[in-house]
Structures are given as structure tokens and as C-alpha cells.
Amino acid sequence: MARSVPRRPLLVAGALGAAPLLAPGTGRTQGIEPAEAPRRAERWRDLKAAIFDGRSTEPAGEALTLVAPSRALDAAAVPISLSLSPEAVPLVRAIHLVIDENPAPVAAVFRAGPAGDLRALTARVRVDAYTFMHAVAEFEDGRLLETAQFVKAAGGCSAPVGTDLRAARERMGRMRMTLPEGPPNGPDRPVPVQVAVSHPNTSGLQIDQLSRLSIPAEFVRALRVLYRDAEVLRVACDISISENPTFGFALAGEPGGELRVEAEDNRDRRFASAWTVGNTG
Questions:
Q1: How far is CA 38 from the centre of its chain?
Q2: In angstroms, rounded to a whole number, what is the distance separating the alpha carbons of residues 125 and 76?
Q3: What is the mean pLDDT of the chain?
Q4: pLDDT confidence of 161, banded at 50, 70, 90?
Q5: What is the Cα–Cα distance from 176 to 26, expressed in whole angstroms?
Q6: pTM, 2 dp
Q7: By C-alpha distance, which of 96, 127, 139 is closest to 234?
Q8: Cα-only R_g, the chain
Q9: Nearest-angstrom CA–CA distance, 99 and 225
Q10: Are 191 and 177 in contact (CB under 8 A)?
């Protein structure tokens, strides 16, 4: 059984950070103070040991790419994207997204279903302090390949809810799906899809601006995508995912099928929506 994931002390500034061991000049290139590099490297070693039960990782090289802004405009909604090389696509069964300095570091785990793959993924996340983000691809043969990006942002996990909380709860569970490039057109021509779930996704660290009381944590913890009744994608997530969780992925197959999205939050509420993905979108 894997050890529990080390959590950063919530009220202590300068808690342990995380990163792979840095090559000379890497930290300075990404805007990291050289004195911080050993501490961040130690944090990542601890997290990696806990999450992957001591299994070793290797540099991903071009097999896995993580893109995130070096300085985020909004720490509560930081856009990230993950992509696999064509050679890695059929071999990867899961991608783990870790935000080292967040109170709950494991932001999401993406797993491919029988009818999907992890070639291209997007999400919006919260960032609580200047941090490394790590993405780790888990291969069918058990190998773990990692890559990292340093992000300058702070306060995202405790940032005020972006909309009226009562109204957000009334809309809870509504979903939206978009096909930026139209519907899929065969098993060999995947297209991007984006789904969004209306949910306040409160972290438990936010304060009600009127009552000044803590807002309890209510967040989507699982999302499942099916196309023509076959599973495309599963996502396990936590408080590091932004308000109104939004995920992008690639979808292949013949047009005209039903795309179904199912979600569940930490209060055991379940939500679902379905759309017919037609020839005209």
C-alpha cells in the first residue's frame, strides 16, 4: 500500500517544495532561487515515494509534455495541457498531475478507457504557492516517466469563490460540451472535446466574504466519459481542480453516437449529461 501523500502545512509559509533534481542552470532558467532547489527536490522525492510506493521514475523527454504558464494570471484557474508523443499514446495507461506545493498535491489522475487514450488533455487548476507541477506517465509495462514545469502563482486554493455561492449550488451538476473542431470522423481521426461541470468545487480553505466563516469543501472527485457506451476517460480529482471543473481530451470514433459524462462529488452527489455527437456537431 502506498504511503500517505505529504501535505504542505497550511499556515506555514515556505513549506517544502518539490522538483526533480535540477540540472545546473535549470532552476535559474525557470525563475527558481538556487537556494530553494534542494528543498524543492526533497519535496518531490517525498511526494513521489508516497504516490508511487517507492517506484523509480525516468525523465520523459519528448514522450510526455506538460505546458503551464510560467506566471499565472489567475492562481485559482491556471490552464494546463498534457500531451503524449505518437509512440507513447498506445502504451500509457495513466497520467498523474501533481502540484507539489498544494495542500492536496495530487490534482488529478487521468486513466484511459478501452475506447480512448491520453494523447491530449487539458484542465484548469488551483496553485497555492510558487511550485513545480509534475506530470508522470504510467506505462502498461509499469515504467514511470516524469516531466515538470515551474509556475509562479499563489493563493489559488483559498481564493474567494468566483460567483455567488448560493447560485452556484443551484446550478450544480449542469454540464456543457464543446467540439472545437467538430465531431469525430472515424477511429483514426480523433478530435478535441471539452466538457465542463457546473460546481463550486470549494476547497475547504476559502472564507465566506459575508459571514467570514469557512466554506466547507465540496468538490468533484470523479469524472467518467463514455462514447457509444464504451469508456473513453476516467478522472480522479481533488480540491486542486478549479471551480466549474473543465477537462479537455481527444475523442475518436464514428459520428452520430452518444457522448455521456458522469460526475460524482465528495458528498456522494451524482450528475450526468449526454449529447448526440452528429455529423454537423
A1: 26
A2: 7
A3: 89
A4: confident
A5: 40
A6: 0.88
A7: 96
A8: 19
A9: 24
A10: no
